[in-house]
Amino acid sequence: MVDAYENIVKKIRAGVFTGKPVEFGGSLARTEATGYGVNFAAVQALEKNSAKDVKGATYAIQGFGNVGYHTGYYAHQSGAKVVAVSTVDVAIYNEKRLGYEALFKEYQANGFITNKAGYGKEISNAELLALDVDVLAPCALENQLTSENAGKVRAKNRGRRRKRSDYARSGCHPASKRCIGRPRYSGELRRRGRFLF
After folding, report:
1. Which of 94, 137, 139, 155 could be cross-linked to 67 through a Cys-Cys bond (beta carbons 3.0 to 4.6 Å apart)?
2. 134, 156 Cβ separation under 8 angstroms
3. pLDDT tens digits for 9-23?
4. In the beta sheet, which residues pair with residue 61?
């Protein structure tokens, strides 16, 4: 597709397409880039909004696919305490800290996680969204925060991996400073003293 596009515009524009092989201008860190970015934004929000260091900060991560896995991995590497994670099948919570090394190994071996090893107590995804944590990272499907549950979010900082379809539905464009990283229910979260990044 890059070749066809460049033939049409008569210019070299490899940056127009994502997912390219490295030899055609792709990124070496493509797999983990979004999760790394979510954690990077969380660290910045903790410092700016909460005047708190990431070491010891509590994280709840909804969705444990590629983005959630790498968000948790980099949070763990930064010294944060990941206390909850979820998949479509299970949500696991341990108020002290999940055994993240074991979770990583299970995910790498199977491509999914379970709670057979007893990482913590099983909760619902709705309960995960309402946990009182420093950072909530919804890394699952879009539309997980709605007008019905936004008022129950107790996380002090809330990140979001945005999908292009979310921008289209909300009427925002990624270049708009007012809309980047802001869910449609940001007003409700802001009224409750929750910071967005």
Report:
1. 139
2. yes
3. 888 776 677 667 777
4. 85, 137
Instruction: Convert 167-193 to b/e letters by CB count within 10 Å (16 or more is b).
Output: beeeebeeeeeebebbbbbbebbeeee
CA distance 70 to 39: 8
**pLDDT higher than 70, residue 97:** yes
Which pLDDT tens digit goes with each residue over 186-197? 444 444 444 444
Token pair in block for residue 43 = 């660290």
51-86 tens-digit pLDDT: 788 999 999 999 888 899 999 999 999 999 999 999
How would you list the strands of the sheet with 135-138, edge to edge? 121-123, 91-93, 81-86, 58-62, 135-138, 157-158, 195-196
Tokens (6 digits) for 135:
């950072």
Give 150's contacts (C-beta < 8 A, 6+ positions apart).
183, 185, 188, 189
Alpha-carbon gap, residue 19 to 26, rounded angstroms: 6
- 123-137 average pLDDT score: 91
Instruction: From residue 63, give the alpha-carbon distance in Å to each of 128, 136, 150, 161, 184.
Output: 11, 11, 17, 11, 19
CA atoms within 13 A on the CB side of 52: 19
What single string gives the DSSP state of each residue in 78-101? TT-EEEEEE-SS-EEE-SS---HH
